[in-house]
Amino acid sequence: MVKYLKFLLLSLIWGTTYAAIKIGSASTPPMLGLALRYCFALVILFAAILITKRKIPVDRSSLKIYAIVGIYSMGLSYLCTYWGMQYIPSGLSSLLWATFPLCIGIFANFMVPAEKLNARHLLAIILAILGVTRIISDWQLVLNVQVFIGCLVVLAGVILAAYPNVYLKAYDNGYDSLVLTAMAILIGAVLHTAGALLTGQFQRMTWSLVNIGSAAYLGAFGSAVAFIIYYSLLQKIEVVKLSFVTFISPIVAVLVGLIVLKETVTLNEIIGVGLIFGGLFLYDYRKYTAFLKFGRIA
Asked: By three-state DSSP, how is residue 33 classified?
């Protein structure tokens, strides 16, 4: 029951982060926005580490995990998402992120012996690709080069995020989810702060309570709380099953985008996300059916 509640909370938090990113990105350069977000998260994470008197392992295996998650996920993947969302609606970004489980499935095929692709999996991936193609072939996107490129960059971020998640599952060394989150975000913070300084993003930043509030919310909830929950669940349930979160968070994100940001949803997006969700369900329908029947997710 506790795992189920954690799963639901994670879906709700990540569903609201797209709107928060969109609000902040209006006048916050992407690397600086990430640097601020991670700084807020680090205050909470390292305070929790000190209070709970956790040790931070610095052996070779642990450092490798910190680096992989920090560079690929907190660094490159989030940069792609933040950059792309300067040009596309928050709801559309969340729909593209719905392909995350299938990207995980492709990496898992090569890295996790127990999760090999079969004909059904390949058909599911093809359905999802058709869904993405339908979404980004929308004439409103094709005629706007920046929006089209933004979609492709967000998709690149999805692929970059999939690799470290499968790596953790394949080479789990009993990591502490709180410590892993803190160290990976620390690496991400260093990378983005350095990038923001080198590219002059501090000079282009418009400082306001809205921007700072957005970064604070994303840091506290979207990073600190969400990733502690995510990595703790990743140790207990299968990586593909955990990615079921991408069924729920896009729905939350689209609703928040419609209500708060007054975004619109096109027919092509609805058809496209239907194909993506169909592919996700086909990929591992037995587990998803069990989940919907309130079966155990462990």
From this structure: helix
